[in-house]
Design goal:
The protein is α/β, with parallel strands linked by helices and 421 residues long. It contains 16 helices and 10 strands. Helix 8 packs parallel to helix 9 and helix 8 crosses helix 13.
Length: 421
C-alpha cells in the first residue's frame, strides 16, 4: 500500500502545456474509472484547475509512477517525452504533504487563496461519486480538509490582501465600517471587477451597481449577486448614488472627468465618496482627486497594501508548514497502523479459538459432574498455559541466541516490568 501525488502546475509548466492535460469536468468520472482500472492503482482522485492538474492515487507501491504517467499521457494523447519535463511525483509522506499544502493554499499562484479548498472538495466529491475513493483516500481527504481549516483559522494566511481586487475592497472597509449601509458602483465587467464584486458581496455591501459597455455582460454578474446593471452612458445619472466607485476597464480615455464628478458631489450634498481606479490607462481623470470630499486612489496606491499583505501571508505560511508537518506524521502513523491490522486480527482469532476450546472442555466436565471449583481452576490454568506458551518459548530462544532486541521488544509489547537488582 502506497500513496502517489502526481501532476503539473503553474510552477512547472507553461499554460499551453497545462491546457493540454486539463480534464473535462463532464468526463472526469469516466477518467477516474479508467485510472483505477490500471493494474496497480486501487484508489484515485483528480484535481484539475486552470493552474494545476494533480492525481492522487493509492497504489501497490511507490514505484508505480511510470504506469500512471503512461496512462496520463495516453488519456490526453500526448507523447510521454513531451510531458515528462513538466511533471512531479511525490510518494507516501511527500504525497500527504503535497495534498495538504495544496488544500491550504500554500502551493497556489496567490499564496493563501481560499478557492483551492473548494476545488479540492469538489475533486473528492467527484471521485467519491465515481466510486474510486476507498478507506485510504477518504481518510486522507478528510484529514486534509481539517488541516486546511486549521491553517485558515490558526494563522493569518488569508487575512491580508495580496491581489488588486482584494486590496481595493480592503480599502473600502477602512473607509466604511458597515458596508451594508452603502452603495458601490463598479465600472467594467472583466475578471478583476468580478472578483471585486464577489468580495464586496461577501462583505455585505448594501447595494451594487455594475456598469459596462456591454450591458448584458454586466447584467449576468449583477443578477447573480443581486445587483443592478447599467451602460457606461448611464454612469452620470447614477454617480451621485455611489459611496464607493471602483473602476477597471480597457478604455483608452477617462470615463469619469472632473466636471461629471463635481455634479455628482453636489447631488450627494458633499458626502464623501471613495474612488479606486485600478485601470491602466486610468478610467478616472487624475483631476477628480482635487475635488473636496472625493478620495481617489490608483493601482499604485494599492501596491503598498498588497506588499504588506504578502509579508503577513509569508509569515503565516511558515506557521502553516509547521501545522502540516505534524499532521503528515499523524497520518503516516495511521497508514503504518493499517499494516498491523491483519496481524492483530489473526492474534485475536487464535486467542478466541483457544478460549472456545477451553470453555467447551470445561462445559463437558461440568456436564459429567466434575466439581465446579476444580473445573474453574483447570480452565484458568490450561488457558493461561496455552496463551503464554508461544511467547515464553520465543523469549527463551531469544535469550539463548543473545537477541536482546527481541527481548526488549517483548518486554515493551507485553508491558512487563523487571525487578531492580
Amino acid at each position: 500500500m502506497s500513496l502517489l501525488a502526481f501532476g503539473i502546475n503553474h510552477k512547472t509548466a507553461p499554460v499551453d502545456i497545462r491546457e493540454k492535460v486539463a480534464f473535462d469536468p463532464k468526463q472526469l468520472q469516466s477518467a477516474l474509472r479508467e485510472l483505477v482500472a490500471q493494474p496497480s492503482v486501487n484508489e484515485a482522485a483528480i484535481l484539475s484547475t486552470c493552474n494545476r492538474t494533480e492525481l492522487y492515487c493509492e497504489t501497490e507501491n511507490a514505484e508505480e509512477f511510470e504506469q500512471v504517467l503512461s496512462w496520463f499521457c495516453e488519456y490526453h494523447k500526448l507523447n510521454p517525452g513531451d510531458v515528462r519535463p513538466y511533471v512531479y511525483a511525490h510518494p507516501d509522506s511527500s504525497a500527504v504533504k503535497q495534498i495538504m499544502r495544496v488544500a491550504s493554499g500554500l502551493d497556489s499562484l496567490i499564496l493563501g487563496e481560499p478557492q483551492i479548498l473548494g476545488q479540492m472538495k469538489d475533486a473528492f466529491s467527484t471521485a467519491t461519486d465515481a466510486g474510486t475513493v476507498g478507506s485510504l483516500l477518504n481518510r486522507l481527504f478528510q484529514q486534509t480538509f481539517t488541516v486546511a481549516k486549521k491553517v485558515r483559522t490558526d494563522t493569518a494566511i488569508g487575512s491580508s490582501p495580496v491581489s488588486v481586487a482584494f486590496a481595493a475592497v480592503s480599502l473600502t472597509k477602512q473607509f466604511f465600517s458597515n458596508l451594508e449601509k452603502h452603495t458601490a458602483l463598479l465600472i467594467g465587467a472583466g475578471d478583476t471587477t468580478e472578483l471585486v464584486a464577489r468580495h464586496l458581496s461577501e462583505q455585505g455591501i448594501g447595494r451594487l451597481i455594475i456598469a459596462n459597455r456591454t450591458v448584458e455582460k454586466a447584467r449576468v454578474l449583477a443578477t447573480e449577486l443581486g445587483g443592478y446593471a447599467i451602460g457606461l452612458s448611464e454612469i452620470p445619472k447614477h454617480l451621485a448614488e455611489a459611496d464607493i466607485v471602483i473602476s477597471s476597464t480597457a478604455a483608452q480615455a477617462p470615463i469619469i472627468n472632473k466636471e461629471m464628478m463635481n455634479t455628482a458631489i453636489k447631488g450627494r450634498k458633499h458626502r464623501a465618496i471613495l474612488m479606486v481606479d485600478i485601470a491602466v490607462p486610468r478610467d478616472i481623470d487624475a483631476n477628480v482627486g482635487e475635488i473636496d470630499d472625493v478620495y481617489l486612489y490608483t493601482v499604485d496606491n494599492l501596491q503598498s497594501i498588497i506588499q504588506e499583505g504578502m509579508k503577513t501571508r509569508e509569515a503565516a505560511a511558515e506557521q502553516a508548514e509547521d501545522i502540516i508537518e505534524g499532521q503528515v506524521s499523524h497520518f503516516m502513523g495511521w497508514v503504518r497502523s493499517l499494516e498491523a491490522i491483519q496481524l492483530i486480527r489473526q492474534f485475536r482469532v487464535d486467542a478466541e479459538s483457544q478460549r472456545d476450546q477451553a470453555v467447551d472442555k470445561a462445559m463437558r466436565q461440568l456436564a459429567n459432574g466434575k466439581d465446579t471449583a476444580d473445573v474453574i481452576q483447570e480452565l484458568a490454568h490450561g488457558l493461561t498455559n496455552k496463551l503464554i506458551h508461544q511467547p515464553t518459548a520465543e523469549m527463551n530462544q531469544a535469550a539463548f541466541a543473545g537477541n536482546n532486541e527481541l527481548l526488549a521488544a517483548a518486554q515493551q509489547l507485553l508491558g512487563l516490568k523487571t525487578e531492580d537488582k
